Amino acid sequence: MPDAEVHKSWCGIHLAAAVLIISFVLGGVSFSAPPGNKSPAVSAPSKVAVQNTKPSVPASLLPVATVDEEEKIISLINKALPSVVNIVGSKLDQNGNKEVITRGTGFVVDPKGLLLTNRHVVSQDNLTYTVFFSDGSKYLATILGRDPLNDLAIVQILGDKFPALPLANSDKIRIGQTVVAIGNSLGRYSNTVTKGIISGLGRSVAASDNITGQTETLDDVIQTDAAINLGNSGGPLLNSKGEVLGINTAIEQSGRGVGFAIPINDAKKVLESYSHFGRIVRPYLGVRYVTVTSDIQDEFKLSYDYGALINAGELASGPAVVPGSPAEKAGLKTGDVILGVNGVLVRGNITLLKLIQQKKPGDFITLLVARGKAVLNIEATIVELPAYKP
């Protein structure tokens, strides 16, 4: 992971008490893994036709609510499919033939041809990206921006008016609500649709990119039991109204029916930033941290059971306090616990990441910091997060 991506809370193996980390992979599909890729490809078993030994029930005999719900889901899928695209990354081989390297998913968010997808789907600058719609039409894609903080990217295609998906307010998601995931499953089965529920919120997971082999931590993501397979990355996670709640991003590697999506409100911030600045701008403090719980408090013998412990973790690519960052200039140190920002405590669902992301470059902030038995007020100036480099 590049050192630029330092706002993400880290939960390594030795910090497993904070967040259960098993093994997760980002849902892109690579057909030509680069040398040194330490993340093995994860494939799902092929489905075969199985004779149903139970008698079918005519729709006329099903409860009205069941039939109505089924028709509602079918209707929203039919409306959404024209807006969901396959994104294929390719290059010419030594013989001048086109070689497909990656496949993923995306979806239209603006009729003028603006698309959202995962950053890892379009992370390689040496590839040509082509977008395929369900009606067979295809367009060359331009990558407008890659989010240096989150696994998001903005893609542009040129052409006629495109069907865009409506975006929901992901802050209003409830555990147990019905969701539908659409994507280019396994890079072979376009427009694959799966149904499930929201099974968790505010998750933090360590995910490895099956294409680049990099590992990154995804914070505050949505957990769902709707099947998300390799190739589904960048596809929409829809609510029962057909609105986008999140962007399908990662799966649990052992195939236990656990998938993760980035909340669409995070993507809205990316779109707003690009619209305002012409690029994706993110505020930056410059620390790696783990969210404090009672278990972390016991492990590190801390005085508080909340806050953000500045700690790099075993798998981080750099120190907990990034050299030259606002955090270093302010005097923050490894082992400090950031208890609050501008009077707001880092507690419960209010994470350090969320508080920093509410700021903009140039903002002055006051951090409430526990250092040993002392509690300090430390001032820092937020700057722009360095650009992402794949």
Description of the molecule:
This protein has helices spanning 64-80, 264-277, 294-300, 326-330, 352-357, and strands at 24-26, 29-30, 84-92, 98-110, 114-117, 128-132, 138-146, 153-157, 178-185, 189-208, 215-224, 236-238, 244-252, 259-263, 283-284, 289-291, 308-310, 337-341, 344-345, 364-371, 374-381, 383-384. The chain folds into 3 domains: 13-32 and 166-277, Trypsin-like serine proteases (Thrombin, subunit H), CATH 2.40.10.10; 81-157, Trypsin-like serine proteases (Thrombin, subunit H, Beta Barrel); 283-384, Pdz3 Domain (Roll). With 390 residues, it is mainly beta. The longest helix is centred in the first third of the chain and has 17 residues, at 64-80. The chain is globular. It has 5 helices and 22 strands. Strands 1, 9, 10, 11, 12, 13 and 14 form a 7-stranded mixed sheet that branches. One of its GO terms (molecular function) is serine-type endopeptidase activity. The chain crosses the membrane at residues 12-33. InterPro entries: Chloro_Bact_Ser_Proteases, PDZ, PDZ_6, PDZ_sf, Peptidase_S1_PA, Peptidase_S1C. Residues 289-373 form the PDZ domain.
In short:
With 390 residues, the chain is mainly beta.
